[in-house]
């Protein structure tokens, strides 16, 4: 019988616990309820964090699309600026050629109270010419008419 078996007797002693030992080792009902509330609170916090993460991810996607759009706009603007710079350079070269042609054509014609045309006085010379042609009534005397006619003949061959 088991009562006579030394192994069975030892296992029984080992398996028997006093009442205090049983209370200390078993979970009390209040402990289980407290753990359950903590778990519910942790689950609630996890849900809130997941929701917050989802909102942050949506905001990041929106920001990335805005950044991408801005980069595309910047690239387009840079390309447009490059085209404008090339056009400006071409226009500057054309203007330079026209100003050199005008200087060569008018080199022998002296305007009253001015030195012969050169690169240094080019702007002043052009302003004087512009004034002469916009206010021709002031230049009606025969000497000025001849000057205006000689200027017309000198610049006649310049291709614009």
TrEMBL record:
Coiled coil: 32-94
Annotated protein name in UniProt: MYT1 factor
Entries under Gene3D superfamilies matching the protein: 1.10.287.1490
Keywords noted in UniProt: Coiled coil, Nucleus
Species, as recorded: Alectura lathami (Australian brush turkey)
Compartment annotation: Nucleus
Cellular component terms (Gene Ontology): nucleus
Primary residence: nucleus
GO MF terms held by the record: DNA-binding transcription factor activity, RNA polymerase II-specific; RNA polymerase II cis-regulatory region sequence-specific DNA binding
């Amino acid at each position: 019988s088991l009562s006579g078996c030394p192994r069975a007797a030892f296992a029984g002693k080992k398996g028997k616990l006093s009442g205090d030992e049983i209370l200390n080792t078993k979970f009390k009902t209040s402990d289980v309820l407290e753990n359950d509330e903590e778990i519910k609170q942790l689950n609630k916090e996890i849900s809130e964090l997941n929701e917050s993460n989802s909102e942050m991810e949506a905001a990041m996607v929106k920001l990335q699309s805005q950044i991408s759009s801005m980069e595309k706009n910047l690239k387009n603007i840079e390309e447009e600026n490059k085209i404008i710079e090339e056009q400006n350079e071409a226009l500057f070269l054309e203007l330079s050629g026209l100003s050199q042609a005008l200087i060569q054509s008018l080199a022998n014609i002296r305007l009253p109270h001015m030195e012969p045309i050169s690169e240094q006085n080019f702007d002043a010379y052009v302003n004087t010419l512009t004034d002469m042609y916009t206010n021709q009534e002031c230049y009606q005397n025969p000497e000025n008419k001849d000057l205006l006619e000689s200027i017309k003949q000198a610049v006649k061959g310049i291709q614009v």
